[in-house]
């Protein structure tokens, strides 16, 4: 049996608008975190695809289907632009405002890094493609095909599988920050990691 080939390219390089398909992978990967807004997958996809920045997203395909996403942001553009009105429209006044409050600092703040630093965020793989090397292929593509000299990412302390993968890729711990409202968010600290290339 022939091994399936994973292909990676920037979202902006696809011949059609694949924002919906990419957002489906993102929503599936962050189902637990986004569950605060809704359990309705379609509603989540409809809301978050409007906030995605195609210029910084890389997509992995397996047999032509989008199965992985990764944003390589910098101090000019982030993976998502969290919009209060979009959140309120899709999830109501209370959840929209609360969600905006909790997410805006994670995504809307300008990154404090130099021009030569890429910030990796929004990494997700579809359920059926997990364990097939999709995330690794995304990382390897970005690490070898971008002009950044340094990469930084963050991972929460409860995501041990992702943390181990980042260590295997050569990332090292840079800083750990205690999380406010940790019992509400489900993790205690954010681990910031870096890789110099």
TrEMBL record:
UniProt xrefs under PROSITE patterns: GNAT
- Gene3D superfamilies referenced in this protein's UniProt entry, alphabetically: 3.40.630.30
Matching entries from InterPro entries are given as: Acyl_CoA_acyltransferase (IPR016181), GNAT_dom (IPR000182)
Q: Where are the transmembrane segments?
A: none
Q: What residue stretches are annotated with the N-acetyltransferase domain?
A: 16-197
Name the chain's protein. Answer: GNAT family N-acetyltransferase
The lineage is: Bacteria, Bacillati, Bacillota, Bacilli, Bacillales
């Amino acid at each position: 049996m022939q091994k399936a080939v994973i292909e990676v390219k920037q979202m902006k390089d696809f011949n059609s608008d694949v924002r919906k398909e990419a957002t489906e992978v993102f929503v599936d990967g962050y189902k637990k975190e986004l569950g605060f807004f809704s359990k309705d997958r379609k509603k989540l996809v409809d809301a978050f695809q409007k906030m995605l920045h195609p210029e910084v997203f890389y997509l992995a395909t397996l047999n032509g289907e989008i199965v992985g996403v990764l944003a390589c942001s910098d101090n000019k553009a982030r993976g998502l632009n969290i919009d209060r009105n979009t959140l309120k429209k899709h999830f109501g006044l209370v959840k929209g405002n609360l969600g905006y409050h909790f997410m805006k600092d994670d995504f809307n703040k300008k990154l404090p890094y130099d021009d030569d630093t890429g910030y990796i965020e929004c990494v997700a793989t579809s359920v059926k493609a997990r364990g097939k090397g999709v995330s690794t292929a995304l990382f390897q593509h970005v690490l070898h095909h971008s002009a950044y000299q340094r990469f930084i990412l963050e991972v929460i302390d409860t995501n041990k599988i992702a943390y181990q993968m980042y260590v295997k890729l050569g990332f090292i711990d840079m800083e750990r920050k205690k999380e406010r409202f940790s019992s509400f968010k489900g993790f205690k600290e954010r681990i910031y990691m870096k890789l110099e290339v």
